[in-house]
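queue> pop job 88
queue> type: inverse folding (structure -> sequence)
queue> payload:
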């Protein structure tokens, strides 16, 4: 009769309850019903912890309040596909990381570093306002079908990646402490949402147009925004507030607000409220979902892909 090692015994606990000295393999020792029971127990525990956490309850209400106002005012009569996408990402990351303790990234000077990160966001918003005012005009250079290399991609990579990376490396942070990690396990939760978003994107767009959108949004949104807003800003606000939930929400709020210049530039004079509606419903909530995922894996690289695919899906 086969005997399991103590290491294997520990790995399968609590499903095998024999004493380690006499541990034996039971028939069907890891049945599907026990696995499903464990998931239900984890879900029940998470729900109970959520209900007992005042900060989590307040943040959940703040997150859903703009959606509620958009629905009752008649401005958004079908929010459910967007909400399904947002909460679907959060559920998948919860499912694959529910037994993983949250890691807090090291932050040496929370006040100063949070101020620097917020200043970089403000500078980006002012840059966008100057573009759309317009106070200046940047050269237009095309790549494939992308016409605004110098209007979006180059300034974003410079201001949201190269500048903050240089600042925090000079402060003696390692790349992995900024969310730049190579762990392959961190990619597992991203596989399902990525596959779904690829399917939606190819359903809604011609393959060539979709691929060009993916390239554009990766370098013009996914990579720079995830590095600045999740890798830098969110982790600093979590340390500053000494509360991961409020740090997550505030970083998501800033993320949504940072889209106001471009939203206003695309809104008509008679429908300017749509810019605020988009910023504080969908864009804030997407930032919250990606921020939640970042708290679970502390790796921005899979999130850059999900972020890109969200933008390229419509």
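queue> result:
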């Amino acid at each position: 009769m086969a005997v399991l090692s103590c290491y294997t015994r520990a790995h399968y606990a609590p499903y095998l309850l024999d004493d380690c000295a006499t541990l034996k393999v039971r028939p069907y020792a890891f049945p599907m019903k026990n696995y499903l029971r464990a998931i239900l127990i984890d879900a029940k525990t998470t729900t109970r912890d959520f209900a007992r956490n005042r900060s989590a309850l307040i943040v959940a209400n703040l997150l859903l309040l703009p959606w509620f106002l958009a629905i009752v005012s008649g401005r958004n009569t079908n929010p459910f596909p967007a909400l399904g996408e947002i909460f679907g990402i959060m559920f998948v990351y919860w499912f694959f990381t529910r037994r993983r303790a949250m890691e807090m990234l090291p932050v040496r000077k929370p006040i100063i570093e949070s101020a620097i990160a917020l200043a970089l966001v403000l500078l980006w918003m002012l840059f966008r306002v100057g573009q759309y005012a317009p106070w200046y005009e940047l050269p237009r250079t095309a790549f494939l079908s992308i016409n605004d290399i110098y209007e979006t991609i180059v300034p974003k990579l410079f201001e949201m990646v190269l500048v903050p990376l240089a600042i925090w490396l000079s402060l003696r942070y390692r790349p992995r402490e900024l969310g730049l990690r190579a762990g392959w396990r961190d990619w597992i939760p991203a596989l399902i949402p990525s596959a779904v978003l690829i399917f939606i994107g190819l359903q809604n767009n011609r393959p060539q147009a979709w691929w060009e959108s993916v390239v554009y949004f990766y370098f013009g949104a996914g990579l720079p925004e995830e590095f600045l807003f999740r890798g830098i800003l969110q982790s600093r606000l979590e340390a500053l507030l000494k509360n991961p939930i409020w740090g997550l929400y505030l970083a998501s709020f800033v993320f949504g607000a940072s889209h106001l210049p471009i939203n206003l530039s695309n809104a008509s004079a008679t429908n300017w409220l749509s810019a605020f509606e988009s910023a504080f419903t969908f864009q804030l909530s997407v930032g919250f979902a990606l921020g939640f995922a970042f708290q679970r894996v502390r790796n921005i690289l899979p999130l850059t892909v999900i972020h890109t695919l969200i933008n390229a899906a419509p």
